Amino acid sequence: MRHGEVFNPEGVLYGRLPGYHLSDLGVKMAEQVADRLADRDIVYVAASPLERAQETAAPVAARHRLDVVADPRLTEAKNSFEGKTFGVGAGALRNPRYWKYLRNPFRPSWGEPYIDQVVRMSSALDAARDKARGHEAVLVSHQVVVWVVRSYVEGRRLLHDPRKRQCSLASLTTFTYEGDRVVSVGYSEPARDLLPSKAEASSRSQFGA
């Protein structure tokens, strides 16, 4: 599960920075997804240690009388632009000293290598599979790392256009296992009716993943 909407009035790329919590709408998203999952056979809930992920996981865990396990493998990808607005105008891209971070999009040069994201996310998935064999687990993480590990499992290249990620706020990307092998990947948006329109999302200045 990707976390819900974050309160970010300054419009910065918050990445792994502490202190970024769910907005009021984000809390509603988390509650709505928890309601949709209330009848599922969930026996394990884990989340990135970042506040927005922990807050998104809490209602799901509460519905099933479980604790939220903080798993650092589920955390956001490291990004050199953390704490800055990202764009050409008044954003970080206007400053030549940041251009070096854009030299290699295949790695990517601005942050944690894609393959490192795959390794740690795959490890978190495998751990959840082992904790919940015969049942279900929910892991709450962040857009880019969810999309990268999904791309790896589905055989796509890891370099991608961020605008084309299928991983909206509070969405579910489902990995189904037979034994130790992933046999299918699904996607759903239980909070779709709460998603802001593109215009609203822009005006709300929600950055990060």
From TrEMBL:
Q: Report the CDD domains cross-referenced here.
A: HP_PGM_like (cd07067)
Gene Ontology CC: one annotated term: cytoplasm
Pfam families named among the record's database cross-references: His_Phos_1
* Protein name, entry field: Histidine phosphatase family protein
Organism in which the protein naturally occurs: Yinghuangia soli
Q: Name one GO molecular function term.
A: phosphatase activity
Which InterPro entries does this one have? His_Pase_superF_clade-1, His_PPase_superfam, PGM_Phosphatase
